[in-house]
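Q&A log
Question type: sequence-to-structure
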Amino acid sequence: MGRIYERLDERLRAFIAEQPMYFVATAPANGHVNVSPKGYADTFAVLDDHTVGYLDLTGSGAETIAHLRENGRITIMFCSFGRTPKVLRLYGTGRVVTPGSPDWPELARRFPVDTPGSRAIIVVAVDRIADSCGYAVPYMELAGERGMLKEWAGRKSPEQMRAYHAERNATSIDGLPALDGL
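Response status: OK
Response body:
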């Protein structure tokens, strides 16, 4: 049933590219575990055989950023909701790259950073690649992407977005620094 992979080969890359959403899980040393659904086309990229990244968009919180700043642990999970059952997990260590970071210009070319609400790129050094059957995952059909986040963020000026980040994304629900100081 389950299998461990040495690297993100072409078959795994194709599977990842076919999935319209994925889930990101992180946890602080002490505090709440966080699982976030992610979507939008072109916001996830396989950077090499052991490195992936995704465009982090403004949300109601910043748990992933806070947890990565604390300990770096992250798991990304892709589920097939189509005919072929499969769950793929990428385990690794993540880091936060913000627009002011030296790595930003090179990484930004891989993502639509002009997407309203873009606040960071999460880069993950993958140290374990594993799949499982996904036999219990239901079949589902994609109706389309929700435009709500892009529309909401698109109505904000840069000053309004900075104020939102300062109010809602500075720390995690456990009080860990997130966008505060980034």
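Response note: The radius of gyration is 16 Å.
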